[in-house]
Amino acid sequence: QQQVKQSPQSLIVQKGGISIINCAYENTAFDYFPWYQQFPGKGPALLIAIRPDVSEKKEGRFTISFNKSAKQFSLHIMDSQPGDSATYFCAAQIINDYKLSFGAGTTVTVRA
Amino acid sequence: DTEVTQTPKHLVMGMTNKKSLKCEQHMGHRAMYWYKQKAKKPPELMFVYSYEKLSINESVPSRFSPECPNSSLLNLHLHALQPEDSALYLCASSQGLAGGPSNEQFFGPGTRLTVL
User: Which of A16, A22, A98, B110 has fewest C-beta within 10 Å?
Assistant: First the structure.
């Protein structure tokens, strides 16, 4: 039973464009929502994370939008660059628990 | 040092072999994890050690045997694996519950395991 649903499975964007990845969850006990970036042959790296007490968090070209009432959150990659081509996983966690519930992942390809 | 290291990077083994994967971190983290990741899939949690004690075993077959010799090291002993066990094995660490609310998990680069 997948606790976090992620879409789309893959997307292609032109250099300079905006990439948008959406995630939805059911468990209202989740209170920590990280995004991981993974390049081929590498481990996932934490990109940005948000707690449900804020609706948006921005770090450089990466922004998380969070809608607590809809139980949805999304990652926006602004001014997408070829170096952003990777697989992105959203995740959700209860802050005092060890388990991360991952989304299925989105493969982003940025065309030059 | 904010790095989790894993050795070896690649491992090929037969179904009758015994091998071990190693993981090390020097961030003072007290929770360490083993994950298995198949191609184009998210990581799947296998084991969690908290303060060097096994805290979570996600019903992993006994042919995988974890060990935490000290707070910086984590091993995964492999024996009599099957070809379907071929995957990327990831180690991660986090501060641990007693270390405060941060549960950010730092992942290592993984060991690419092939079982013939």
Answer: A16
Q: pLDDT for B77-88, tens place per residue?
A: 999 999 999 999
Beta-carbon contacts of residue A14 (< 8 Å; ≥ 6 apart): A80, A110, A111
Residue labelled with tokens 């032109």: A14
Alpha helices, DSSP H, located in chain B: none
Q: What is the tens place of the pLDDT at every residue in A35-51?
A: 999 999 899 999 999 99
SS3 B85: helix
- Say whether residue B98 is in contact with chain A using an 8 A CB cutoff: no
| B76: closest CA of chain A, how far (Å) | 17
Return d(Cα A10, Cα B88) in angstroms, integer: 21
